[in-house]
Design brief:
Chain B has 6 helices and 4 strands; from the N terminus they run αβαβαβαβαα. Chain B is an alpha/beta fold. A 4-stranded parallel sheet of chain B has the order 1-2-3-4. By secondary structure, chain C is α+β, with helices and mostly antiparallel strands. Classes of the chains: A alpha+beta, B alpha/beta, C alpha+beta.
């Protein structure tokens, strides 16, 4: 038996002969393996693979086409964000957490800021307009995140067109983000005490137009996939995980709601004034990939409903403050969106550089030193597109977080992969991963 | 298009004169196949660049290859962790020459804001980089600009002994260059 | 908790702020007094009723900023967790994971593991906190109670070196397998490198002068 095959080197181990296959002729490998009595094929999928939703590594043990064991290897995007934030002020922390789950930046920011506000004891002082803007931005973010989930999910199952359409809708949402915050992604827009800046002029009417356009466009997405026989065959009855499994594994978000459990923190433990909006929690009871897909599809409409109600509220809140009144916490300047992105408004720069020494001192102290947060610890959670995004914050009374930890839904939900995939076909693993919708930036942080 | 030599008007129509180098560069730049090497946030913008509005297909490169063996451009889109670095190098080694690397975004170019234990401080520690693309994340337009600049670079690339000569010159210049922090004068 | 001098994190580099004589100490919060308010009294009562060894196992009950924290002795953790999960009036059926915190100043209990819990039945949240000394970083695993703890415990082991006894496969999860040390401990350096600009070098974030 040859062991010099460049593509299939073999070595003796305690478990018998092990072949590492990196390419080449499959037939020659099969003839070689045929000589041994027992065969187990372990396939490494990833960390660089187009169907694993980022740098996820799947270690699949196969018997023919059937997966007998599925394990995931993660950590290929570990960024040390939690430790890095310990060396920055509480306000700068927003810039770090927004890059964790990069498809849901506003949810990370909101969860973090709600935590900091709880530590400061200013939860009730956050102006109403800031909360309304937060809700509106989060719901837009839910749409853009679900669009990527649907688009890449379809792409991974071999359907390219839904992805092109999904990104068309996502671009509309990103236009809104760019108009309001100056950035398409990672915007660090929600800040402790409020939001970074007020809406630009005529924003609400632009948002209303976009909502109309999105509602129209979503029909295309639905038509393309719902009822599509290939799609239905690839998703129905695949990746089964029932309520008991979800609860044991701590699963939240669309995966939990696909078991018929209407658990949505926006309803059960409202934050940022979600109790004042009229919307429904979407559930299905199929416990499979199709159910999760349908939930994401239907949640788009609920998000649009919330955005419309937020627009009505914003009309009544014209000119209201968007940052807490306490000048010891509020970022000193009103920022503005310029041609090159977000920055200090020119009026503010004129004031601190030319008019008021006290303003300059105040700006300098707050920006370089930051504010102190009373010692203690809190846990706050928001319903992100993937489930419960929880933040555990510990303060020692200083200007920087003592410890910052994200309970990421992607990280937690990815644990269910083995339960969903073992015993299924290898092609269904891809569908199951796509239905969990893990974002590796969130998994590895 | 930078291909012909300017003698064509003296010839019957239908002829074009060029050098082998220019022809090879022209061919190469117009058939770049990028490998999908999405890592983090930048990967989403890379996908957006390939989708409808920005439409990389205009430059004949919407076909992102899943296999490095079929690709000749690696767009490192996102932060490279110490755990990912060996994987990245292996994929680069699997790509067939000639091959190019775009380091997309601040993290891939320099570690960006993540100056810590987990992140490789610039992917040029692992693979040679042809284009550094700043931004966090860079917009799709910026990615396209980087790709067009790379096209330009490729079309002017030398071949054979000339290429070896250029590589030696560039290397010598890099070794002789002063470190950035010792430079004086205005920023430019 | 800790005592700190001055306002800057770095000493001996010429503190010109005028605050170098400032001594600040953060007080450790003691046990809270009843009534705790809200559903916290019910939770404490029910746990005491269902778990007779309550006073022996729970070191402190802290209510702070509208959140209830039970400080549990580490050897009793699994017992308490089982009662919290199974008792019908408590029913914390979702374990939201584990988070490590490193307090180098708390000699003898440097490493803390924090477990946020969620009850979907009663729509309640509480938190358990367990401490272990750095010299003996063992805490019983809760994978048998909440299977979701599996990866979270591996992460906490990876980042803090807390060994969860009884975990089915406690290996590194985020860092490479052969990584030395536990990166998110306070005594582990951030590991940044100096940043070069034209004509200048700025030290890594952890080396810079910073406000406390």
């Amino acid at each position: 038996m040859s062991t010099t095959d460049a593509y299939a080197s073999s070595r003796e181990t305690t478990e018998g002969r092990v072949y590492a296959v990196t390419g080449g002729d499959w037939d020659s490998l099969v003839t070689e393996i045929g000589a041994t009595k027992e065969e187990r094929v372990v396939v490494n999928m990833g960390p660089q693979h187009p169907s694993t939703h980022g740098v996820l590594r799947l270690i699949l043990e196969l018997e023919g086409e059937t997966v007998t064991e599925a394990r995931s290897g993660i950590g290929y995007l570990h960024t040390g964000i939690e430790k890095n934030a310990e060396y920055r002020t509480w306000t700068q922390g927003v810039t770090f957490v927004t890059r964790m789950d990069y498809l849901a930046p506003l949810f990370n920011e909101a969860a973090y800021c709600l935590g900091v506000e709880k530590l400061l004891g200013i939860t009730d002082d956050v102006p109403e307009k800031a909360s309304v803007i937060r809700v509106m931005m989060m719901e837009f973010n839910r749409i853009s995140s679900h669009m990527v989930a649907l688009g890449t999910g379809a792409l991974e199952l071999g359907a390219l067109s839904p992805m092109i359409f999904a990104f068309r809708e996502r671009e509309l949402v990103l236009d809104i983000f760019e108009m309001i915050s100056g950035l398409r992604m990672n915007m660090a827009y929600i800040r402790p005490g409020g939001v970074a800046q007020d809406l630009p002029a005529n924003a609400v009417s632009k948002i209303r137009e976009t909502v109309k356009e999105l509602r129209h466009n979503f029909k295309d997405n639905a038509k393309m996939l719902i009822g599509n026989s290939i799609w239905m065959k690839r998703t129905q009855g695949i990746g089964y995980l029932d309520l008991a499994g979800c609860v044991t594994l701590g699963i939240t978000g669309p995966v939990l709601r696909s078991t018929g459990m209407p658990w949505d923190l926006r309803k059960t433990q409202p934050y940022s004034g979600y109790e004042n909006y009229d919307f429904d929690v979407v559930t299905t009871d199929t416990c499979d990939v199709y159910g999760r897909f349908l939930i994401r599809m239907l949640e788009l409409e609920e998000s649009l409903r919330i955005i419309e109600q937020a627009c009505d509220k914003l009309d009544a809140l014209e000119g209201a403050p968007v940052m807490v009144a306490d000048k010891k916490i509020a970022w000193p300047s009103q920022l503005s969106v310029g041609a090159d992105g977000m920055g200090n408004s020119l009026n503010h720069i004129r004031e601190i550089m030319g008019e008021s020494m006290e303003s300059l001192i105040h700006h300098f102290k707050l920006v370089t030193e930051g504010f102190r947060v009373p010692a203690g610890q809190v846990y706050t959670a928001v319903e992100s597109p993937r489930g419960e995004t929880g933040v555990h914050l510990v303060s020692d009374g200083g200007t920087r977080p003592y410890r910052l930890h994200f309970r990421e839904p992607s990280f937690n939900n990815l644990q269910s992969l083995s339960a969903m995939c073992e015993g299924s076909f290898i092609a269904d693993v891809v569908a199951a991963v796509a239905s969990i919708d893990p974002v590796m930036g969130g998994v590895d942080r | 298009m930078g291909l012909t030599m300017g003698l064509e008007e003296k010839l019957p129509s239908g002829f074009a004169l060029t050098t082998v180098e220019k022809l090879a560069g022209y061919m190469r730049k117009n058939s770049l196949w990028p490998a999908t090497f999405g890592l983090a946030c930048c990967a989403i913008e890379m996908m957006a660049a390939g989708a409808g509005r920005y439409d990389l297909a205009r430059f004949g490169m919407e076909v992102f290859r899943a296999s490095p063996r079929q690709a000749d451009l690696m767009i490192v889109a996102g932060r490279v962790s110490n755990k990912m670095a060996p994987v990245l190098r292996q994929i680069y080694d699997q790509m067939a020459a000639p091959k190019w690397v775009i380091s997309m975004g601040a993290c891939a170019s320099s570690g960006g804001m993540f100056n810590n234990y987990a992140i490789v401080q610039g992917v040029d520690h692992v693979v040679p980089v042809d284009i550094y693309l700043p931004g966090c994340p860079p917009r799709p337009e910026m990615l396209m600009d980087a790709i067009l600049k790379l096209h330009e670079q490729i079309s002017n690339e030398k071949l054979g002994a000339n290429r070896q000569q250029v590589i030696r010159e560039v290397e010598a210049a890099a070794l002789a260059a002063k470190p950035t922090h010792q430079l004086n004068g205005l920023l430019r | 908790m800790s005592t700190e001098n001055g306002m800057f994190g770095v000493t001996g580099s010429g503190d010109t702020s005028g605050f170098s004589g400032l001594v600040r100490s953060a007080a450790s919060t003691g046990s809270s007094e009843r009534p705790y308010g809200g559903y916290f009294d019910d939770v404490a009562d029910d746990l005491e009723r269902a778990y007779p060894a309550f006073s022996d196992s729970i070191e402190r009950v802290v209510v702070d900023r509208g959140e209830l924290t039970l400080y549990v002795k580490r050897e009793k953790l699994v017992e308490v967790a089982l009662v919290l999960r199974d008792e019908p009036s408590l029913r914390f059926e979702i374990g939201l994971g584990v988070n490590g915190v490193h307090y180098p100043e708390e000699v003898g209990r440097e490493l803390h593991a924090v477990y946020p819990l969620l009850s979907m039945t009663h729509n309640r949240r509480i938190r358990l906190e367990v401490a272990a000394p750095e010299s003996d970083p063992h805490i019983p695993s809760l994978v048998e109670v909440w299977a979701s703890s599996n990866w979270h415990e591996r992460e906490t082991y990876d980042m803090f070196g807390i060994i969860f006894d009884g975990h089915p496969g406690l290996t590194r999860i985020l860092m490479p397998d052969d990584w030395p040390g536990h990166p998110q401990r306070k005594d582990y350096p951030l590991g940044g490198i100096p940043i070069e600009y034209k004509g200048a070098t700025v030290p890594a974030p952890s080396e810079r002068r910073a406000y406390r």
